[in-house]
Amino acid sequence: MSPPIHDMDIANGTGSAVRADINGALAALVALSSNSSEPSTKYAYMFWADTTNNVLKQRNAGNSGWITLFSLGVANGGLATAASPTLTGNVTMSGNGFLLVPSGTNAQQPGQSGQPAAANGQFRYNSNSNAFEGYADGAWGAIGGGGGATGGGTEAIFHENENAMDQDYTIGDGTSNINAGVFGPLTINAVLTIPSGSVVSIV
Questions:
Q1: Most CB contacts within 10 A, which of 2, 25, 30, 190?
Q2: CA–CA distance, 52 with 35 (Å, rounded to integer)
Q3: How many CB atoms lie within 10 A of CB 19?
Q4: What would the DSSP string read from start to end of 63-91?
């Protein structure tokens, strides 16, 4: 049985009738007027738990329509949490400012000791190499202009790379004939896997 919807107007009557009317109003308030049908008498800013669509709605300031606030019966009302939210579907940003991505050292990369697991598609700014990097095919690598040096104005002439490899690295996807190059000298402190048919050149 749905909780009562009340017009929030206590009518004159006998003691028992007035008490019953007050109890009905309190029941509607406690249950946020939860019902499959909207309250017949509406007030600006009142709440209505719409049990047909399982959402909580609030009347707008002009008392001319309902504003959907969040879903009922789900954690956080179906809204993203402030810390470490998980979003499903596509995300569209319409501003003209910026998106600040995570920034950290090599030791703070996902996949390193004491850090979360690395996964394909992760993206961050590496504060040691001062470059954007992404995780794909089991390894971190530079993204976009992360491997280049920028001179005065907009010139991008030199290619840069670190001179020490401290993490395991596999050329390509491990199976394809992919060649790679790097400027030396290069100190290799981890496992470099070069698949058959691939070539690594140190210039």
A1: 25
A2: 8
A3: 12
A4: SSSEEEEEESSSGGGGPPPSSS----S--
